């Protein structure tokens, strides 16, 4: 389940994050401590986050294929 999100600027995952997938300027990252996921755009703004990797992959496909903007 995608959790409530307020798009916010991040540092891009330089600490505590590993990039799982990257496409068209978007990326999915996983927190190495909590294991939750987030989707960032090319400006490192968080658009979604969740504990469910499969759900994040589905949302990621929407962002990269249809260029959805919240």
Strand-helix topology:
Layout: E1 8-9, E2 17-23, E3 26-31, E4 37-40, E5 45-50, H1 53-66
Antiparallel strand pairs: 1-5, 2-3, 3-4, 4-5
- What's the Cα radius of gyration? 11 Å
**Helicity range:** 10-25%
Distance between the termini: 17 Å
Number of helices: 1
Tally of separate domains: 1
Largest sheet: 5 strands, antiparallel
The percent range for strand residues is 35-45%
Identify the strand order in the major beta sheet.
1-5-4-3-2
Strand-and-helix sequence, N→C? EEEEEH
Tell me, rounded to a whole number, the average pLDDT: 89
Summarize the structure.
With 70 residues, the chain is α+β, with helices and mostly antiparallel strands.
Explain this structure to me?
This protein has one domain. With 70 residues, the chain is of the alpha+beta class. The mean pLDDT is 89. It has one helix and five strands. The protein is globular, with a radius of gyration of 11 Å. The protein has a five-stranded antiparallel β-sheet, covered by helices on one side.
What key phrases describe this protein's structure?
5 strands, 1 helix, 5-stranded antiparallel sheet, alpha+beta, 70 residues
